[in-house]
Every structure is written in structure tokens, then in C-alpha cells.
Fold:
Amino acid sequence: MGKNLSICAINIEPPAEFFCPSITGLATPDLSEILGNCFDWFSSSDDTWQGPQLMEPTDSKLFAGESTGKPA
Structure:
């Protein structure tokens, strides 16, 4: 039972690789630059945003754990 079930997560935290079975998922990306730009704008006196409307990380990494695989 459960051999045909795969589990995957988004924004996986580091301990997931040590679970048994290890959990497959996208690692939480580094958001420091994106959030830094937002906080700079929040703290400025300029009311108009000068930049893209969509900001997203470009370097998501997949951790391929044991929780996913081909069906038995």
C-alpha cells in the first residue's frame, strides 16, 4: 500500500532531506534581493514604484528525494 503514491512540496525546508523517506520539493529560494527592493521602496518618500510589477526568483532548485518515483 502506498507504492503508487508520490509526494512533493513547495518551499521545502532543509530537514526534509533527512526524513525517511526524504521529501522531494522545491527549495526555498533566496528572496533577499527581491525583498530588499521592496523594503527600500516602502521606506522611501517616493509613492510611485519604479520597477517591474512582477518580481520572482529565477533560481528555484529541486531536491529529488525518495518521496517521488515511478509507480510500482
Notes: Residues 1-44+60-72 form one domain. DSSP finds one helix and three strands in the chain. Helices lie at 32-42.
